[in-house]
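Saturday, quiet lab. Running sequence design on the structure tokens for the scaffold JK sent over.
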């Protein structure tokens, strides 16, 4: 499996925020978000191979019930992802898979953490602009995930105008409001915190959840945390 890192930390986002978890970060992504917080898996992907056996061994060596398989985009390596998830589930782990929801496949997951990308993610003027824009939203894929898994649907919000896209996708795909999680864009606490007050107001008004990006608030853009 194309792989970037395994580390033991806390889940910084979403319904399980604050939960101690082992993270398996796959490398390579089919999108190029302009504000990507793991460019070493997307814009400049690390190209290391590791066996499924080695991933499972390293994860299960840690006494920690929750595992988060993230990326990059894990579903573009679907054969390996399927095996990793099945073996971690067999080992009694609670498995969250984090995905940009552009590729669907059935895997063993307790929580599917979907993060569809809004227009604010598009790298305008870059060679990737057209490909990113064409791929970033796949309503049928989001629908398939919602029908097959317990889900949370996370949105990275940059400006208040982004909320109209969230409402439109909610209505188009029939996403339950309580499964929608709004998070502030930013790679430092100085960037995320000013957005939290108006995000809180929007969540209150629309019945969405508000999530910090706790790892960024604590450690900034540091890797492996
Ligand atoms: S989908 Fe995720 S990993 Fe891929 S470019 Fe966007 S933020 Fe980065």
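Result came back. Writing it out in full:
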């Amino acid at each position: 499996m194309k792989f970037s890192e395994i580390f033991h930390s806390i889940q910084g986002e979403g319904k399980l925020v604050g939960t101690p978890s082992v993270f398996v970060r796959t490398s390579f992504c089919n999108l190029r978000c302009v504000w990507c917080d793991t460019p070493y898996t997307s814009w400049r992907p690390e190209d290391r191979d590791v066996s499924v056996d080695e991933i499972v061994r390293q994860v299960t060596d840690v006494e920690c019930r929750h595992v988060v398989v993230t990326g990059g985009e894990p579903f573009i390596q679907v054969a390996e992802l399927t095996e990793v998830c099945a073996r971690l589930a067999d080992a009694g782990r609670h498995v969250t898979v984090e995905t940009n929801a552009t590729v669907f496949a059935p895997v063993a997951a307790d929580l599917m953490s979907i993060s569809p990308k809004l227009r604010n993610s598009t790298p305008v003027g870059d060679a990737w602009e057209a490909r990113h824009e064409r791929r970033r939203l796949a309503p049928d894929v989001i629908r398939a995930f919602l029908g097959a898994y317990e889900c949370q649907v996370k949105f990275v919000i940059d400006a208040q105008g982004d909320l109209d896209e969230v409402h439109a996708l909610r209505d188009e795909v029939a996403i339950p409001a309580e499964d929608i999680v709004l998070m502030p864009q930013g790679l430092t606490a100085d960037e995320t915190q000013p957005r939290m007050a108006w995000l809180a107001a929007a969540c209150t008004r629309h019945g969405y959840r508000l999530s910090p990006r706790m790892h960024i608030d604590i450690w900034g853009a540091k890797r492996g945390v």
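Notes for JK: The chain is about 35% helix and 20% strand. The longest helix spans residues 189-206. Ask whether to fix the surface positions before the next round.
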